[in-house]
DNA sequence: CGCTGGCATTGAACTAGGACAAGAAATGAA
DNA sequence: TTCATTTCTTGTCCTAGTTCAATGCCAGCG
């Protein structure tokens, strides 16, 4: 059960058995049914969750009530509103919702602090996780600005081959920053080639 | 000379005098003339720079040769391709260029390691810096997708009031993800109100 | 089984913003 | 001061993507 997350956290920093034991002992397991909103706008995000099983989306709602999906998280990904919460004491501007029945390992701000004090090397591992999120988000920004809808969709398929089977088309459209109708047109155009 | 950067690094983590002394002793001062490219595509980013004075831009070049500006950095901001370099051993996909004559304090990967080993609390401060970058980039992604050119420009003026005087319009257009010509039209429309 | 409510598709009309071109204005080097 | 280069503006035409509406689809539920 712990092997997935232990492998993930060890990706850029090597930990010995003692450290991983501390890590595992602080994890909180949680199962969440599908279509559950785990973080509301204006709430403080009180968790950092690792997806053992399932699929989650994180999204903003714009001034006209339209959703913009910032991130999908599936197995072996982390999801949280890490960017503001807990460090700025600013309430979250995003929603986090399960799209499927999910199983998580979670850290609360408190258990994360406990982890860092008991095994400081994890501070580095978490910093690198954030850096990777930053890299992904920067790439996404670049793609959003510089590519056509068709290019963005093809790249999405390449990058997340399984996701297009698991989530509704209109969520993918929202992630790509295009309308659901236009994505449908793009798809029929691609299919005809 | 060190007060600016010491204030900046102490924003979310409190350091004592000893720690700040270690920090200051590891900084490398560097002056760079305007229009200098500090990081080329496919190079490894070997610095993390704090802007004491001046203005810098970080940008991608897309498949058609168009620049997309990811970030401006002015006084008291950090600039680097922190997202990949040094941790993935992947070469940078971005350019970093000075727009004005600049003065920096820099860390190399080595001096940063030395800092973390001598004063581990800095690891946390740097993690929080990355989280703030992530928050800013996420907001930018959301704005890029969900707002009109006019809204984006007005928000830019509000958020970076001095920058619109310091950098060329077409750089701002590139940052906002619109053409320079269209930004000009937006500006005249706004001026007429 | 049939019904209901969310999904996806398709089409027609519309628009925000892009591409191109040409001129005006500002900057800067000599 | 002049010439050159870059930046900014303005106009015209064009297109990628939106909006709105109608239709069909299929999954879950009584």
TrEMBL record, chains A, B:
One of its GO terms (molecular function) is kinase activity. The keyword Amino-acid biosynthesis does not apply. Transmembrane segments: none annotated. SUPFAM superfamilies: cAMP-binding domain-like. InterPro entries: cNMP-bd_dom (IPR000595), cNMP-bd_dom_sf (IPR018490), RmlC-like_jellyroll (IPR014710). Coiled coil: none annotated. It comes from the Bacteria. Keywords: Kinase, Transferase. This is cAMP-binding domain of CRP or a regulatory subunit of cAMP-dependent protein kinases. It comes from Flavobacterium xueshanense.
């Amino acid at each position: 059960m712990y092997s997935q997350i232990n492998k993930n956290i060890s990706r850029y920093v090597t930990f010995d058995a003692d450290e991983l034991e501390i890590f595992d002992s602080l994890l909180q397991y949680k199962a969440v049914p599908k279509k559950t909103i785990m973080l509301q706008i204006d709430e403080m995000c009180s968790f950092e969750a690792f997806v053992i099983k399932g699929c989650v989306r994180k999204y903003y709602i714009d001034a006209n009530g339209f959703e913009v999906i910032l991130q999908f998280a599936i197995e072996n990904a982390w999801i949280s509103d890490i960017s503001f919460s807990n460090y700025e004491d600013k309430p979250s501007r995003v929603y986090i919702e399960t799209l499927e029945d999910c199983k998580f390992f979670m850290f609360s701000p408190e258990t994360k602090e406990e982890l860092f004090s008991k095994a400081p090397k994890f501070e580095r591992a978490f910093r690198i996780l954030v850096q990777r999120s930053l890299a992904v988000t920067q790439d996404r920004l670049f793609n959003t600005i510089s590519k056509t809808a068709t290019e963005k969709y093809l790249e999405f398929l390449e990058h997340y081959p399984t996701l297009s089977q698991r989530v509704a088309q209109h969520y993918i459209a929202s992630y790509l920053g295009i309308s659901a109708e236009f994505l449908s047109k793009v798809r029929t155009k691609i299919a005809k080639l």
